[in-house]
Amino acid sequence: MPVQIENKWYSHPLSLNLYGLNFNKETIKRTGVAYLFEAEKSVMQMESFALPNGTAAVCGSNLNKYALDILIRECHPYEIILCFDNEEEPGKTDYFDKLYHICDKYKQYANFSFVYDKEKLLNLKDSPSDKGEEVFKYLLETRVRV
Fold it and tell me: Which CATH number fits the domain that encloses residue 93?
């Protein structure tokens, strides 16, 4: 959000952030796995789960090369798992195709997979962490590997 300081406006594109990476990068380094969520809320929710918190938020529904470069440079993960909000409309495959395309685009940098709710456990716009740890673990086990 832009901020005004002494008649000068400052802004920063959120897509250049990896929220929570400063707190969770050592866990990502240790486990070799990075979970990328859309929103900051999910990174904080994961703090209450029994799983190691190797998460960051891309602050949007896309992963760009700039953010990926930061993640690779700082953490060297062997696997990156996209855990984006459920946006799949009934009877459509646009959301699946979008996630697959992101993973396919960057698969030369790490192993990529994505959480995809095939069984409709999540509501529209829910994060994979919104329904609690057990649902998240199940979605993680059934993720799509690219």
Answer: 3.40.1360.10
